[in-house]
Design brief:
Layout (H helix, E strand, L loop, with lengths): L2 E5 L3 H13 L3 E5 L2 H11 L3 E4 L8 H10 L8 E5 L4 H10 L3 E4 L4 H11 L6
The structure holds magnesium ion (MG).
The site of magnesium ion (MG) has 5 residues, from loops.
Length: 124
Amino acid sequence: MKTILIVEDNEKNMKLARDILRAKGYAVLEAVNGLDGVNLALEHRPDLVLMDIQLPDINGIQAFERIRGNPATAKLPVVAFTASVTVNDRSRIGEAGFDGFLSKPINLKEFVDTVRRMLGEDAP
Ligand SMILES: [Mg+2]
């Protein structure tokens, strides 16, 4: 079973993402702030990380950079999971080197397709 780490401080978004991923047969790890996210990534080496950008401690870009900066977690795929939609935000996220982008509110098809693609799974 593949494991996906969700780093998200909004309870509703967390619940929805968790419910979808569990229903699709993935194991889910959860962090509600950036530092816990970095630590869980290091501890469990999940197959994919969904990273919110606006978080209560370090932001998602900083958390991403810590994950990338540690050789133990540098190769984990990390997708920005964010409501930020300005061109500026998108380019900041792109420049940071995230592997993908998932917008909020969650669109079920986009969400599942992106997760599968990031995991290297073919659509059924
Ligand atoms: Mg947030």
